[in-house]
Design brief:
The protein is an alpha+beta fold and 345 residues long. It has ten helices and 16 strands. The protein has two domains: 11-237, 3-Layer(aba) Sandwich (Aspartate Aminotransferase, domain 2); 239-344, Aspartate Aminotransferase, domain 1, CATH 3.90.1150.
Length: 345
């Protein structure tokens, strides 16, 4: 506040970009106004265009699919894995095997004739997807990977930070996320060209000059204000403490739910979750509804997982595979209160 640099330019933006990149072991960070704009920018950076297809999962928060349509591209919904709740490598393999074709090193859907311009796997509630297999498959088909790690800051897969596996990773700092700037987002990447392009597009595509206003393409005002970046610099320093506190809550929940025979979802093999949102799996949709009603009647906030994207009116026409696991999880997964406990209790 005292520096007067409260708006879109200032030292904390630059510092946060460096800090978040280094926290996630990426070369570059670009701070943005929210996670949705970070997804939109990342899709633009890899060249997603009108009429293209972009692979993602139907079991996700609506922002993932919305960002794809901001580029006038179409989401293609592939099933998730039952254990990770993230995009399923086998389902992705099956889809590509049946639909994909390489033409001059670009991937096309041979049934629709459209380019498959990107793949956006999402790490549900901070639980890591099998991101190594997903990246490997996409690289075989020359499909850029944008990792939607909006919920997964602090989670790791085989010891490596989520967000750092894809060509670009996307983070969110919305009020409900593990650290928050009120609203905020970031792109992380090892590709210098991508980082520069993301910065350029998100800052009105203004060409640097000491006084002239010259913009060389249509850009966006997607900048994170400096005042918000300052909040994030402070919270990033406390990540270890936040992660430990949440893991202790997860362990308490696990012990409790084990005793009463309810499945508390735990991190998949080879991975560490940030336990952003903790959840249980009920035996049926009916049990789920009973639980939700009972909890909410007691003023305990419990919510179901998202309704599948292909059931929403604006995505109902999009391609989807059988969605077996997504449908199973949609009917059974419920979040339970997951906040940081100030005194560890
Ligand atoms: C929160 C979230 C976003 C969007 O982030 P905002 O900062 O709210 O725009 C995108 N994808 C997923 C999976 C999210 O949970």
């Amino acid at each position: 506040m005292e520096s007067t640099f409260v708006s879109s330019i200032g030292a904390y933006v630059t510092r946060f970009e460096q800090d978040v990149a280094s926290y996630c072991t990426a070369q570059k960070g670009v701070a943005l106004v929210n996670g949705t704009s970070a997804l939109h920018t990342a899709l633009n950076v890899v060249g997603v265009q009108a009429g293209d297809e972009v692979i993602t999962q139907s079991l996700t928060f609506v922002a993932t699919a919305n960002a794809i349509t901001y580029c006038k591209a179409e989401p293609v919904f592939i099933d998730v894995d039952i254990n990770t709740m993230g995009l399923c490598p086998i389902a992705l393999h099956d889809f590509l095997d049946e639909h994909a074709e390489l033409r001059e090193n670009e991937c096309f859907n041979k049934k629709t004739g459209k380019k498959i311009a990107a793949c956006v796997p999402m790490h549900t509630y901070g639980f890591p997807a099998e991101i190594d297999k997903l990246c490997e498959l996409c690289s075989q088909w020359n499909i850029p990977v944008i990792e939607d790690a909006a919920e997964a800051l602090g989670s790791t897969f085989k010891g490596k930070a989520l967000g750092s596996f894809g060509d670009l990773g996307v983070l969110s700092f919305n009020g409900n996320k593990i650290i928050t700037s009120g609203g905020g987002g970031a792109i992380i990447t090892d590709n210098m060209e991508y980082a520069l392009k993301a910065k350029h597009l998100s800052t009105t595509a203004k060409v640097a000059h000491s006084y002239e206003f010259y913009h060389d393409e249509i850009g966006y005002n997607y900048r994170m204000p400096n005042i918000n970046a300052a909040l994030l610099c402070a919270q990033l320093e406390q990540m270890d403490e936040f992660l430990l506190n949440k893991r202790e809550l997860a362990e308490d929940y696990r012990a409790f739910f084990d005793k009463i025979g309810v499945k508390f979802r735990w991190e998949p093999n080879n991975s560490r979750s940030n336990f952003w949102l903790m959840c249980i799996e009920l035996d049926s949709k009916n049990d789920r509804d009973l639980f939700l009603n009972a909890a909410n009647n007691e003023q305990i906030m419990a919510r179901p997982i998202w309704q599948l994207m292909h059931k929403l009116p604006m995505f109902a026409h999009c391609f989807r595979d059988n969605q077996k696991n997504s449908t199973y999880l949609e009917d059974r997964i419920v979040n339970i209160p997951s906040s940081y406990r100030p005194n560890g209790k």
